[in-house]
Design goal:
7% of the residues lie in helices and 57% in strands. The chain is mainly beta. A hairpin with a 4-residue loop joins strand 11 and strand 12.
């Protein structure tokens, strides 16, 4: 009986599709602003995410994502430059400031090599080189990149997600659950539950 249940469940998982990104659906200068709330629903900070064409490290054929999060005690800013073709990262910079000082994680990515510089609150920097698959995407860009996928009910795709602060790659599966309608201060929109 248990074997039958496993066979039935195995047939329910979505068929993973080849990873094919579409054209960017964002525009140069696009900015989103969010309120950060605690479990009681009180606003405790704010976050902004912006996208800009080009980049200092990747040249003109790239995009730069900038995310800033400010709460009561911590300010964190992340900059990720990624190629226009394939959306693979070229450069990332994370700076986190709090009452004790600032920390920084800077990474340059050259296909399968990632060079990471970690600077602690005392100003000491440690350098590390790690190998990663050549098709990694920076974890902080995933929500943006999902917008370029051919989303549809039952759609599923796998990709390699990399986070320089830990120097590790994870295999991530994106699955579309269903279509939804959401209402936000800007209006009502059709959306996918992913």
């Amino acid at each position: 009986m248990a074997l039958l249940a496993l066979l039935l469940l195995a047939g329910c998982s979505p068929q993973v599709q080849p990873l094919v990104f579409g054209e960017p659906v964002w525009q140069d200068g696009e900015t989103s602003a969010y309120r950060v709330t605690n479990v009681e629903g009180r606003v405790v900070g704010e976050a902004t995410v912006s996208l800009h064409a080009g980049g200092e490290h990747a040249g003109g054929d790239a995009w730069t994502l900038r995310r800033a999060v400010q709460d009561v005690a911590v300010y964190e800013e992340v900059v990720v430059e990624f190629r226009s073709q394939g959306y693979t990262p070229v450069y990332t910079d994370l700076v986190r400031r709090d009452g004790a000082g600032s920390q920084r994680v800077e990474a340059t990515i050259d296909r399968a090599q990632v060079n990471i510089a970690l600077t602690n609150r005392l100003g000491n920097t440690v350098y590390e080189r790690v190998s990663a698959p050549s098709d990694i995407r920076d974890e902080r860009t995933l929500l943006t990149l999902v917008r370029t996928l051919p989303l549809a009910p039952g759609y599923a795709v796998r990709l390699n997600s990399f986070l320089p602060v830990v120097g590790q790659t994870e295999r991530v599966t994106v699955v579309v659950d269903k279509a939804e309608t959401i209402t936000v201060p800007a209006g009502t929109f059709a959306a996918w539950k992913v």
